[in-house]
């Protein structure tokens, strides 16, 4: 289809948590490349990002690996410069990195865990936007997509993950309004229950519950077909928002959740 022909995209968290299925960041990077984009694969895990690069190159497409921590401002400055130097421009910034490590309820979470989740999930998106937006302004175009979660809207016991994911909606709307007159669009995707390693392997590792039991319980909670989505569902939404087909769409919060966010209780 080549819906992103000749575009240059940065995807953060383009590696993935080890597991048997594909992660959101990796699937998005692969679909971007298939649709014609040159992709900068950002991750703190070089090996995992390199695996994504090998998958993309095996299909005959282009990608470069950039190892960094997205919470570090100097490294975000270097990331934007490197993308511009290497590919000549930045058309798409896809902020996918997100974690829930150490999250708890409000009375039991440690301050370190809170600070870390807020830094990785939220502040990192500000830092990458801060460096990429000036380049997009000069170009007079650009698309930013930030990955939140339906946890932003739903009740959840995890205070830091939910709060960070809700704040991403506000950050993205602020960026959308502040940059619309430069031709820059900014939107948020809210994945629901997805069958990804972050969700399944991440949960089984911390709870010790059998994998099949975790999958069945999550599947049963999804209104559409009683089955979780996959990383490809998020990736397809990301391609659409990044493409010119979404050229009049900005400031939108798009759930990709099989109707889960419609449920009350
Ligand atoms: N899987 C789900 O069910 C689900 C649901 C809702 C939202 N999400 C969101 O989707 C996003 C991630 O999905 P995924 O499947 O790609 O996850 P993943 O865990 O497979 O991949 C995330 C990648 O981010 C990298 N990373 C983590 N911290 C980093 C940092 N500080 N700097 C650079 N890289 C870092 C990791 O090394 C990893 O490769 C998150 O924002 C998450 O909150 C997922």
Describe what you observe in this structure.
The protein is of the alpha/beta class and 265 residues long. The chain has one domain (8-194, 230-257): 3-Layer(aba) Sandwich (Rossmann fold). The protein contains eight helices and seven strands. The chain has helices at residues 24-34, 46-58, 73-87, 111-139, 159-179, 200-207, 211-220, 231-242; strands spanning 8-12, 38-43, 63-67, 92-95, 142-147, 184-191, 253-256. The protein has a seven-stranded parallel beta sheet with strand order 3-2-1-4-5-6-7, with helices on both faces. Helix 1 (24-34) packs parallel to helix 2 (46-58) and helix 3 (73-87) runs parallel beside helix 4 (111-139). The longest helix has 29 residues, at 111-139. The protein is globular. Nicotinamide-adenine-dinucleotide binds next to helix 1.
Q: Number of helix segments?
A: 8
Taken in chain order, the helices and strands follow as: EHEHEHEHEHEHHHE
Overall morphology: globular
CATH architecture: 3-Layer(aba) Sandwich
List the helices and strands and how they pair.
Blueprint: E1 8-12, H1 24-34, E2 38-43, H2 46-58, E3 63-67, H3 73-87, E4 92-95, H4 111-139, E5 142-147, H5 159-179, E6 184-191, H6 200-207, H7 211-220, H8 231-242, E7 253-256
Parallel strand pairs: 1-2, 1-4, 2-3, 4-5, 5-6, 6-7
Bound molecules: nicotinamide-adenine-dinucleotide.
């Amino acid at each position: 289809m080549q819906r992103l022909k000749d575009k240059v995209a940065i995807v953060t968290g383009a590696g993935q948590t080890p597991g048997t299925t594909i992660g959101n960041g990796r699937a998005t990077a692969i679909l971007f490349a298939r649709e014609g984009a040159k992709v900068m694969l950002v991750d703190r895990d070089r090996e995992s990002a390199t695996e994504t690069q090998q998958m993309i190159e095996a299909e005959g497409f282009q990608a470069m690996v950039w190892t960094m921590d997205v919470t570090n401002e100097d490294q975000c400055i270097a990331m934007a410069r490197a993308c511009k130097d290497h590919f000549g421009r930045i058309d798409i910034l896809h902020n996918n990195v997100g974690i829930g490590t150490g999250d708890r309820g409000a009375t039991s979470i440690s301050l370190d865990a809170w600070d870390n989740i807020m830094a990785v999930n939220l502040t990192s998106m500000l830092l990458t936007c801060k460096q990429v937006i000036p380049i997009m302004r000069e170009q007079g175009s650009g698309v930013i997509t930030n990955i939140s979660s339906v946890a932003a809207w739903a009740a959840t016991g995890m205070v830091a993950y939910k709060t960070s994911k809700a704040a991403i909606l506000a950050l993205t709307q602020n960026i959308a309004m502040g940059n619309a007159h430069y031709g820059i669009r900014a939107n948020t995707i809210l994945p629901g229950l997805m069958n990804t390693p972050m969700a399944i392997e991440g949960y089984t590792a911390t709870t010790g519950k059998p994998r099949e039991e975790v999958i069945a319980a999550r599947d049963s909670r999804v209104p559409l077909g009683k089955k979780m989505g996959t990383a490809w569902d998020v990736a397809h939404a990301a391609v659409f928002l990044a493409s010119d087909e979404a050229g009049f769409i900005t400031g939108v919060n798009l759930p990709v959740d099989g109707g889960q966010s419609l449920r009350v209780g």
